[in-house]
Specification:
This protein is α+β, with helices and mostly antiparallel strands. The chain contains 7 helices and 8 strands, in the order E-E-E-H-E-E-E-H-H-E-E-H-H-H-H. The protein folds into 2 domains: 86 residues; 169 residues, Phosphatidylinositol 3-kinase Catalytic Subunit, Chain A, Domain 5.
Length: 280
């Protein structure tokens, strides 16, 4: 089945502006005509390409079977601009928007992973992060980048009061590093052949499942250029991703999917040889 953009949540107007976080993307809490949301606008200090990677990364995560925030592109008008931390300012144009969801980031909730209604997504998220080279959850080398527990969200929506649902969030550093742009050289061999495991928090090891590694590898083999192109084609031109970079991005997504599918079993077993994945 051909990929199609999910438009079930479709805010069209900014109603009220709340506080902005002192992050590189200037994430700002807002109210829209479709409810509360968090937006990352043009004019943030990291630039427009991180909006594109977050957008594409989130849609790839959904395609892969992970639970994510509902996301949309919210166009800001000239009168919608507002100051961001450190002297930056939101600019008119398409902003990345995510619907606010009840729950808390993992490191702030105090909740245990045993409460998850979707524990299988722990393994799925590790395979996904490895595929997309997502350095903003758990980078393989802690001497370079500390784990970011904030990018694992535990949602209380649609589950029993005592339960939580694992949500994959914030994919702005999928395929790129901080300060890196999307260019025609994105599909370089170092990225395609990176053999490290991403997203493997220490607390995740005991919950790894061999059967879900297989499920993830099987799904990766279903990725093709048509699907990658369709997702990337929804990136607004105002986010300044060149045609050459888009082609390289498609190639990286597809080549990386094949490489990870062929090797992820061995990589995870080498990174966590004692995980005892039984699929139960």
């Amino acid at each position: 089945m051909a990929w199609a953009l999910d438009t079930k949540w479709n805010p069209s107007r900014l109603m009220e502006i709340g506080g902005s976080a002192d992050t590189s993307t200037g994430t700002t809490e807002v109210t829209t005509d479709a409810g509360r949301a968090y937006i990352k606008p043009l004019g943030n200090r990291q630039g427009p390409h991180v909006l594109a990677t977050d957008w594409v990364g989130t849609h790839l995560a959904k395609w892969f079977g992970l639970s994510t925030f509902d996301v949309a592109i919210l166009t800001l008008d000239a009168e919608d601009t507002f100051p961001l931390p450190r002297g930056y300012a939101a600019q008119p144009g398409p902003a990345f928007a995510a619907r606010a969801m009840a729950g808390d980031p993992w490191d702030k909730s105090g909740l245990q992973l045993d409460l998850l209604t979707n524990p299988e997504d722990i393994t799925r998220m590790i395979v996904f992060d490895t595929w997309t080279l997502n350095c903003d959850r758990h980078y393989p080398d802690r001497t370079v980048r500390e784990p970011n527990y904030d990018n694992v969200f535990l949602s209380s929506e649609g589950v029993e009061a005592s339960k939580r649902r694992l949500i994959a969030m914030d994919h702005g550093l999928c395929f790129i590093r901080s300060g890196e742009d999307l260019t025609r050289k994105l599909d370089n061999i170092d990225k395609v052949k990176d053999d490290r495991v991403y997203g493997l928090f220490r607390e995740f090891r005991r919950m790894l499942r061999e059967d879900m590694i297989t499920v993830g590898a099987t799904r990766l083999r279903e990725m093709d250029a048509a699907t990658a192109n369709a997702i990337i084609a929804t990136v607004p031109q105002q986010w300044k991703v060149s045609n050459e970079a888009r082609k390289a991005w498609t190639n990286l997504i597809c080549c990386r999917a094949d490489f990870v599918a062929d090797n992820i079993h061995d990589w995870i077993n080498q990174a966590a040889p004692w995980f005892g994945a039984t699929g139960e």
